[in-house]
Amino acid sequence: MFLVIHASVGALVGNAVGSPAAAFSLSFLLHFLLDMIPHGDLVVYEGYKKRRGIRKAIIHTSLDALMVVIMLTIIFSLGHMISAEIAVAAGIVGGLLPDLLVALFELTQPKGTRWSGRQLTKFHDWHMRNHVFLIKKFFRGDVPLKYGYLIQAVVIVVLLKLIL
Ligand SMILES: [Zn+2]
Q1: Residue 105 CA to ligand 1 centre (angstroms)
Q2: If phi over 0 gives left and psi between -120 and 50 gives alpha, with beta otherwise, what is residue 142?
Q3: What distance in angstroms lies between residue 116's CA and the mean position of ligand 1's atoms?
Q4: If you measure from the C-alpha of residue 1 to the centroid of ligand 1, how many angstroms do you get, rounded to a whole number?
Q5: pLDDT digits (tens, 9 = 90+) for 12-38
Q6: What is the Cα–Cα distance from 92 to 51, expressed in whole angstroms?
Q7: Ligand 1 center to 15 CA (angstroms)
Q8: Distance between CA atoms of 80 and 88, rounded to whole angstroms?
Q9: pTM above 0.90, yes or no
Q10: Which of 67, 84, 102, 106 has its C-alpha lying 20 to 30 A from 125's C-alpha?
Q11: What is the arithmetic mean of pLDDT over 40-64?
């Protein structure tokens, strides 16, 4: 899923479980389950990798990041918070961290034998394999990006109903 979903689910999880450590771990794990749902952004990533869609990827990611800010502003200002904000924040960080690590990999392109670079590369490859796992196993390809946006919009409405 997009960043906005990972961040919002993280906030919800944090609010539900109340403990920062549990919120962080659960949201981190949930990230991978949510990513398995086909959501149309594979074309954006592939365009970025082949360098013909870098502009599109930057616009897509910037809008997604903007949506994160908007959603979190709504959640923190209007949401029905029953837990400490630190648990909610830990959930958000846990939910976003996998994609932040992927971004770190893409921006630094670690090469060589340094331990940190090798682990980051392993994590990136595993994240991408997880991302396409269901798409490759059960679908003939990713859903079109426009459906991806629709899926995110539906999930956002559901999440807002849960927390407001
Ligand atoms: Zn991800």
Answers
A1: 13
A2: beta
A3: 19
A4: 7
A5: 999 999 999 999 999 999 999 999 999
A6: 30
A7: 21
A8: 12
A9: yes
A10: 67
A11: 94
